[in-house]
Amino acid sequence: MSQLPDGDPQETKEWLEALEGVLAREGPERAQFLIQQLIDRSRRSGGYLPFSATTEYLNTIPVERQARFPGDFALEQAIRHYVRWNAMAMVVRANKHTNVGGHIASFASAATLYDVGYNHFWRAWTEERPGDLVFIQGHSAPGIYARAYLLGLLSEEQLDSFRQEVDGKGISSYPHPWLMPDFWQFPTVSMGLGPLMAIYQARFMRYLADRGLSETSGRKVWALLGDGEMDEPESMGAIGMAGREKLDNLIFVVNCNLQRLDGPVRGNGKIIQELEGTFRGAGWNVIKVIWGRHWDPLLAKDSEGRLRRRMMEVVDGEYQVYRSRNGAHVREHFFNTPELKDLVADLSDDDIWHLNRGGHDPFKVYAAFDAASQHRGQPTVILAKTIKGYGMGEAGEAMNITHQLKKMPTEAVRRFRDRFQVPVPDEKLAEVPYIKFAEGSKEHEYLKARRRELGGDRPRRRRRSESLEVPPLSAFDRLLRSTEEREISTTMALVQVLQVLMRDKQVGRRVVPIVPDEGRTFGMEGMYRQAGLWSHVGQLYTPEDADQLAFYREAKDGQVIQEGITEAGAMADWMAAASAYSVHNCPLIPFFVFYSMFGFQRVGDLAWAAGDMRCRGFLVGGTSGRTTLNGEGLQHEDGQSQLLASVVPNCHSYDPTFAYELAVIVQDGLRRMFAEQEDCFFYLTTLNENYAHPAMPEGAAPGILRGMYLFKGGARAPKAPRAQLLGSGAIFREVIAAADLLRNHWGVESDLWSCPSFTELARDGMAAARASMLDPASPPRRSWVESCLSEASGPVVAATDYVRAFAEQIRPYVPRRYLVLGTDGFGRSDTREKLRRFFEVDRHYVTVAALHALAQDGAIPAARVVEAIARYGIDRSRPAPWTV
């Protein structure tokens, strides 16, 4: 609209003068109201006025409305300079004799943002008031360590061991609660996860308050982010939800240093303007902090708007170039017209060079943080313009190479020292020594006083909370008994487990069922009415199915979280609940039930972060397995999630076949995580296939938990060949059927071993092998697999509904010939029977595999295998399923 020609300049002038009069007499709110009324009237009259979500390339908060900076500027500046120096020194020193890497430039750009936050806003946990949640940008970790050093929380030895953790003295490269459980709150360096987790942590605080589980009023979630990071889909994927839910306890601070890892974020555009439009369109309050206070006099003199227009037309790539040059270059190329040059005629080149960006100005940053903290009804994003590598000068300031810099020559260190006026003598520069304030100095006392006022040295996690009194195994007695003729799926058994837990007087209120958007698929619709689906505003409509027994009931105190079609969002919900023992001192028992194919495969990065964050709870992959989910096809059938789960060290994964196995595993998980407070979580795969379930064999529970137990021993026929048959999940029932075929058709007896966790068996085997290797003088330690099979005879055959690599994990610990069947390849749409035939894991293939192993051992003639292949109609010429 601003590009249209002005047909009547005099009328335009009169309108603008009228607007200026309103602004002067009644303020901007009244002016905005009148402008909106004019726009509405124009639209109702048929005029098309497109919405503009962006504003001028200026600070959102005008000078006259800035909150007064309450701190001692000189003391805070001295503290900030010391922190900057120590952060740089830590990385440079660590790389003098090692190649461990590190980052200087990111924190250099964000130091003022962190300084203002720690000095004035970010509250620690006290008995009187719970603390804030602060998501630190991963690459800024050195600055956080440097500040902790000044507070006496870290030693010089620890700083010198930056990124050198193996000997137990070092500190982590990035925020890692697993490695530094008393220091970091959240893992954030996998870029994009921090923003997503922060949004759902903020909303989960509403859930806690609505259900009366924890008092969360007054607490804030702060997420410190990078502008390049905002390209990650997870960074922006949930901002619409945050705006819709009006999460005014959430504040994003985006450090817009205009550079990502290799170059400009938007060299040909303006990332701040782009983010402003996106966030405002999603319903956020946007605060831009672009220019520092040294620009204020120039902007005040800019009566014709020429400087404002120039600020808008320059792209980010040019702004980066300006900061990599000098004041004379800026005068020549930014102030590029006679009018603009006249605007800065009384400024020297040094004065022009010191025209600061808003993110480096504590007065501007404080005003933005204060406004964000007080804003109500919307989440807030602060877009703070900074310089990457600020202070590194010719060694890397605003250069494309700056992110990779971890070393600085002595001359660059000298210039850094001089720029930030730190007391390091010339003869010590090569050492790049750490510096700190003397005990009792004004700076040291001020630093401690600011944190005392905010409740403690920093927001931090807690390792433990109260232990819960979890139900005994007998509480699940119904699941331990046979279902007789009644057929159910293990998913339905899980729903029964949840019902038992939610009715329990001790832990019932603490169970948090979470589903993305297929609760009915998992048979959970009965919970909709009984427990309610949580909604912060309740239910503002009468549901379509209100006349039905299990109608769709939303409620402010609802217990079930139904997230919608977003596995990543639901996983972030689960992480908020699974870390509530630490973040809120409120232990909760979350169950996230999802389509297994869209679980670990889709949210594996979040699952890894959950392990780092010491989350506690249950992930449930429903409708699991490559062949149990008939008819759904290539992208829906899961044959790999168990293998993916196995790589997370503190995730215990199980693939149960029977209801009693599921009950034993869940009860033990409750004991470990919520009574004994072990920092682990569980992944369970459940089926949508209905069948009768037997009663639990006597004494099976310990073996279930260890991953393997004897389900049924074969007859002890003295001369009959014998095989050991192993299986889990859906395919164990095919293994059971194969044992009958082997006996009835071929005279082979089989011992049947249920293996609910090949992963737990493999971990046990690795531990046994390691113990034997490191103690060669003692008798070899046997793995659980070896212990189970040592007295058995015959070859071993394993079959699962997962890729072969899943059951192959235990090969080193199987004491005899071992054959593995699995479902390698893409999925297919068909019946379960045909799918199992296609993937060569049905009872006939298990039978042939056992006969083949026996023939290789010389227990039967090879002709019997050929006979079996013909008898079961197996086409030997058919391509392998993983090749088609």
How do the strands and helices of this protein lay out in sequence?
Blueprint: H1 9-26, H2 28-44, H3 73-94, H4 105-120, E1 133-135, H5 141-150, H6 156-160, H7 193-210, E2 221-226, H8 233-236, H9 239-244, E3 250-256, H10 271-281, E4 285-289, H11 296-301, H12 306-313, H13 316-323, H14 327-333, H15 338-343, H16 349-353, H17 362-374, E5 380-385, H18 410-420, H19 442-453, H20 477-480, E6 487-488, H21 490-503, E7 511-515, H22 526-530, E8 533-534, E9 554-555, E10 561-562, H23 567-578, H24 580-583, E11 589-595, H25 600-612, E12 618-622, H26 641-645, E13 651-654, H27 659-675, E14 681-685, E15 691-692, H28 701-706, E16 709-712, E17 722-727, H29 729-746, E18 749-754, H30 758-774, H31 784-789, E19 796-799, H32 804-808, E20 818-821, H33 832-838, H34 843-856, H35 862-871
Parallel strand pairs: 1-2, 2-3, 3-5, 4-5, 7-10, 7-11, 8-9, 11-12, 12-14, 13-14, 17-18, 17-19, 19-20
Antiparallel strand pairs: 6-15, 16-18
Helix pairs in contact: 1-2, 3-4, 3-5, 3-19, 4-5, 4-17, 7-23, 21-27, 23-25, 29-34, 34-35
What's this, in brief?
The chain is of the alpha/beta class and 884 residues long. α1 (9-26) crosses α2 (28-44) and α4 (105-120) crosses α17 (362-374).
Structure commentary:
With 884 residues, this protein is α/β, with parallel strands linked by helices. Helix content is 41%, strand content 10%. The protein is built from 35 helices and 20 strands. The strands form five sheets. Strands 10-7-11-12-14-13 form a six-stranded parallel sheet, with helices on both faces. It has a five-stranded parallel sheet with strand order 1-2-3-5-4, sandwiched between helices. A five-stranded mixed sheet has the order 16-18-17-19-20. α23 runs parallel beside α25 (600-612). The longest helix has 22 residues, at 73-94. The model has no long low-confidence stretch (mean pLDDT 95).
